[in-house]
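hi! just following up on the protien thing from before. the input was this:
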Amino acid sequence: MYFALVVKIKEDLMSKIISLLLFFVIILNFILTNDLSQNINNIITSSINKDEKINVWIYFSDKGIINLNEQIQKLEQEANLAQIKRRLKVRNELFDFRDISLYQPYIDELLKNSDIILRTQSKWLNAISINVPIYLINEISQNNFVKKIDVVKSGKRKNNLIIKNKENTSRNDYGPSYNQLEQINVIEAHENGYKGQGVKILVLDTGFYTEHESINENNILDEWDFINSDSETQNEDGDHNDQHNHGTYILSVIGGAKEEQLYGPAYESNFFLAKTEDLTQEEPIEEDWFVAALEWGEGLGADISSSSLGYIDWYDFEDLDGQTAVTTIGINIATENGMVCVTSAGNSGYDGIIAPADAHKVMAVGAVDSNGELAWFSSRGPTADGRIKPEVCAQGLDTYCAVPSSNQYAYVSGTSLSCPLISGACAVILSARPEWPNYMVREALLNTAGNAMNPNNDYGWGIINVMTAIHYYDSSGDINYDGELNVMDLIESVNIILISESIDMSEGDFEIID
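and the predicted 3d structure came back as:
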């Protein structure tokens, strides 16, 4: 009897232990497959109003049951030719899993609930962003196709200083924009015929007043408003009055052209314009629109991305490691795909850089004044993993630019304004060296900049020199500028000699001997 009782107790205990273990397995499986970020958990636990709606990323576990090779072949057949040409410079395999579209049934399943509103999709991240009531987040996480849920990070830039009535110190046809171009040796490049022609630039910003006299609308290939999902990037009904101001400054600094007033480095480039900031919001810059715009421009064949915005409000210094922030991940993928990515370092001085300036192959841009002295607001490095930032500098104090009206201009300050000078300079280099991949452009600019012998976390590699960068590889023996020394350089050398030595073999210049 006693023995039977002991056995019974042991069986009950074992049963409870097994049940407890199963419970922990279920919890562990939930954690591993449905990762609610700490940010989300904090919001859920601290929120008083569970009906409040927030913007979140929903990361999917896969892209459905797919034949990867078949999908990639389809992508190769349908891809933009400019996109293929750019990717061929840096990739052996043009497309991979990240380029395949999201699995639509997953999206449809989530959107069955009318309280969930789709914001954007990202093939690269295998995720969508949605606007959703807080009380639904745990329910969404129960879906077995949901890998992770996180907050869509947002923020706002430090204000730019505008001085509209500064004394005009213009010289020749470049007007007041002369110094900001001469400082980086763009004017000599223009005189040599390099003006950004044949290069496509993606600009991500607040919006763009394209009717300004300095903006050539024929150079705009496409535009998209990621806030309102339409093709109008100028102010429209419901926009803040200043919505398209900042983007207008930036576009004009990159590619404006008005005789005796303003020229951008790349005034013969073409542009894709992405409206990605909503000034009606307290924190207008949201990372999901940034990533969506980056994918959009890359798919259209943009060679360069220029972003004078950044994100820091949600991130600690430890997150600025080149691989954590969503916008940084987006930039990393874009550079892997061959884009030259340029972004502002930030206006926080010694408080440090902002994302995505921490990305590994981005060119983060600091600001100097007209004399080459570092601007007090220019963000200093390093990154969390110890890399030097910014990469380079250009004039960002009292940079001359267009403002939204038909013929008005101003001096504006911030790394927002030095960034487009570097973006335009990259386009000038690519117009001179169209065969260069993005890493050659970056290497040439850094290694010919004014502080290249002693880079630091104030100036980075220093103020760039466009013409010196264009000729950076001339003495290396890389005659065809493909980044490699091989037999093709020898063939190109022979061709150059034959062409230069050729003569007119017309009758009278030689004798025919029988």
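DSSP finds 15 helices and 19 strands in the chain.
The longest strand covers residues 53-60.
cheers
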